[in-house]
Structure formats: structure tokens, C-alpha cells
Amino acid sequence: MGIPIRRGSRQKRRGPFDLRRTTFGFALIALILAGGGMALQAAWRSAGNHPVAAGALALAAAAVVLRRRRRARRVAGAVTDAAYGIVDAGLAELDAAEAARAEKRPEPAHPVDYAQLDPYAFEEAVAELCRRDGCADAEVVGGAGDLGADVLATTPDGRRLVVQCKRYGPDNRAGSQDLQRFGGTCYAVHGADIALVVSTGGFTEPALDYAEQCAILCYGPEELAAWSEGGAPPPWETVAAPAEEPVPGLSAP
After folding, report:
1. How far apart are CA 207 and CA 119, in angstroms?
2. DSSP single-letter state for residue 7
3. CA 94/CA 29 separation, integer angstroms
């Protein structure tokens, strides 16, 4: 009894199924077929104008197709392989472009535990936040005789920012007396356009009430974290710039 011998398949072993590659391949083949359809439509219109020549060309084409059916299959396979080659090259370029964009993306900022910093390091960290968001001249001025100002800066739109930093523990909130001392100097002495108090321990309710009356911004742990990690705009962007005063003798258009 003879053992049947299987003939080796001429087809190349295909790789694992790739949905994206197959989808793009079918789309490209559809475009090629659509172009061929448009060419056939144009030929059909031309045949209506020249029926005799069209008939002769049709017979010649049929003869060629019958004689070269195998060659046509090879050509169709070559066209399909070429289409997939174009698709693979395009996908490779897309992947390379996405990888390049990913390299350029800035890494997300790591959360900073401001309560673990010493008071001077906390003031420096707040000044660095101001510089990061456009206050190029932000500097720490806290110390003896600072009269309530720990950080001074100029906002990107030209307003004067005065900041007091309270590096308190979680059980020690800034009270109304802290806000009153700052409120007595931030405008009159330091000429603040925007007054800000940042406290790692939060604020008491009386302190928040006083701050609201005096237009002082209060940033507790949550607000500070949102600002630091990019989840909220800088404090000065939450305060509208004052409208320009009209020049005497000029009327509005």
C-alpha cells in the first residue's frame, strides 16, 4: 500500500492575523477597484460612440483573457502583495510618527508633599511654581522684617503678586489673625494687585470669611496640589484684570 505524498503548498505561510493591516489593505484594494471602475465607465461611454471599434477591442480582450488566465491570477496576486506592501510601509511610518510624538510629550509631574518641606524650602517651592507658570521674576523675600510677604512676583499680564506661605501641619490651620496681619500689609505696604496665602494646613472658617472680604486668595492643600499638578490654572488667572480707565477727553467709539 502506497503512502500518499502531499505536495508542498505554493502559498507562503501567512503571519498572525492583523486587523489593522487587513483593514487598510482592503481599503487600498477598494480604491484601486474604484479607479478601475471609473476607467471602465469611461470606456463604456466611449464604446457607445464607436460601437464597431469597441466590439473589436472586446473580442481581442476576451482572447487575451482566455489565453492568459493563469498569468492574470499571478498579476492579481502581485497587485495584492504590492497593496499590502504599501499598507505595511504606511503603518510603519504612522507607528514611527506616534513614537516620535510620545518621546516629545512631557512626563506628568510627580506629586509633591509640600507638608514635608521645611518652611524655607516650601517658600522656594511656591516661588518655583510661579516661575513655571510665567512669573519669571518670582523670588523669595521672606525672613525677618518681611512684613507678611514671602514671595514677590509679576504675573505674565503685568500685575504684582504677593504671596504668604504657611507651612503648617494637618492639624494646624491658618486662622483669621494670620489673614488679618497679611491683609494689613499686602496692599498698603507691598502694593499687591493679587494677594495669595498658601497654607499646607488649610484655613479656619473665620479666616476664609476675612479673606473673602479683603479679596485675598486662599490656597489650602487641595488647591495647591491641583495647581502644582496642572489640574487647575495658576491663582492669578482666577482673578480678572481690572478694566482700563478711560482717558479724559476721549469718548468711546
Report:
1. 21
2. P
3. 19
**C-alpha grid cell, residue 37:** 471602475
> What are the cell numbers at 147?
512684613
The CATH number of domain 114-238 is 3.40.1350.10? yes
CA 97, CA 74: separation in Å to the nearest integer? 35
pLDDT tens sequence for the chain (253 residues): 555 555 544 444 555 556 666 676 677 677 676 666 676 566 556 656 656 555 555 655 555 555 656 665 676 677 667 666 776 776 787 777 777 765 654 454 567 889 899 999 999 999 999 999 999 999 999 776 678 899 999 999 999 999 999 999 888 999 999 999 999 999 999 999 999 999 999 999 999 999 999 999 999 999 999 999 999 999 999 998 776 555 555 444 4
For 196, the 3-state DSSP assignment is strand
Q: Which residue type, as a one-letter code, is found at position 213? A: Q
Sign of the four-CA dihedral 168, 173, 176, 179: positive
User: The whole model's pTM is what?
Assistant: 0.55
Contact between 153 and 138 (Cβ < 8 Å): yes
The residue to which cell 510665567 is assigned: 134
- Residue spans of the domains in the chain: they are 19-104, 114-238
